[in-house]
Design a protein that fits this description.
about 70 residues, alpha+beta, 2 helices, 3 strands, about 20% helix, flat
Length: about 70
């Protein structure tokens, strides 16, 4: 699944840190920096999936989500 926007994009410096706990560009203005870190950990650890992000300034951002298929036995 992919989720894409056509917004302002994310800088390369920020993109490299986007899934780090407590990383925020809004420190002191209400940002905790936990949202994407929590989502990333749930996808990776609980759902055995993969979450990636691609972005270019002025173009937008694309999140890609891949979930492992679960076999029932």
């Amino acid at each position: 699944m992919q989720l894409t926007d056509n917004g302002c994009g994310i800088s390369r410096d920020h993109l490299q840190r986007i899934f780090e706990p407590f990383f925020t560009t809004r420190r002191g203005r209400g940002g905790t920096g936990l949202g994407l870190s929590i989502v990333y950990n749930i996808v990776q650890k609980n759902l055995a999936g993969e979450l990636t992000v691609a972005s270019k300034l002025g173009t937008g951002t694309r999140f890609s989500l891949k979930l492992a298929s679960l076999s029932r036995g």
